[in-house]
């Protein structure tokens, strides 16, 4: 039987987490970022998975050899998860193991699906690796600013595209107040528009996962690197460890991380399959 936990029950899963695994899992279990948690037993869980609150996938944790849990997973996804995902516009299953032993289990459990995969890289940055770095030079048409409460609220309408600022942050945080109290963000402004943003996506104690977005027409001008430079500078001053997670195929993101002095922590594998076929029915491998 698979049961969904209430938020106040999430911490029961903390002993099951891989200390060297993804930050997102810890952030949700600790109650900092939103998400849903499903386990094999509500009081004494040994296996479970998290549905990230930003709808960016499922992370499986605990005992990967729990046959009773694993045997019920696909049916549970068909009856509970896929209908809920359809309601919020999620078209793809994206699954990740909190430790590498989950890879073979995910492959076995979802073997009837058209399962694809990809690789992620995780980096971390420490102060001594950053001290010699210099802020990149950008055009005078751009200005790097800290995202403050007043800038976020934009009551004076000084920012024309406030949605570009609000959307990525509110995808990852339950409330603006929670983000402003526990997260950080720096943006690049041009002509009263936020054109690039570096922000805390997930937070677990003193580690912050970095999110970066840049408007397409402003890419290739070192804006993301400039915003990230200011962001990680403040992180390190505050004793926060910046955490960088990107696809192995995302060469621009990898380049920025390595230029800033980030060092590799680990890699992991992700799996995906379409939740629905073109005729609107639930997907299955043909």
Short overview:
With 286 residues, the chain is α+β, with helices and mostly antiparallel strands. The protein contains 9 helices and 12 strands.
Protein traits:
single chain; 286 residues; alpha+beta; Aminopeptidase; 30% helix
Q: Biggest β-sheet: count, sense, barrel? A: 12 strands, mixed
CATH architecture label of the largest domain: 3-Layer(aba) Sandwich
Number of helices: 9
Low-confidence stretches: 277-286
- End-to-end Cα distance, whole Å, is 28 Å
Q: How many domains, in number, for the residues?
A: 2
Integer-rounded radius of gyration: 20 Å
What does this structure look like?
This protein is an alpha+beta fold and 286 residues long. It has nine helices and twelve strands. The protein has helices spanning 23-29, 67-87, 102-109, 127-130, 149-153, 162-172, 176-182, 223-237, 251-259; strands at residues 3-4, 35-39, 47-52, 58-62, 92-97, 116-124, 143-146, 185-190, 193-204, 207-214, 241-247, 263-274. The protein has a twelve-stranded mixed β-sheet, sandwiched between helices. The longest helix is centred in the N-terminal third of the chain and has 21 residues, at 67-87. The model is unreliable at 277-286 (pLDDT under 50).
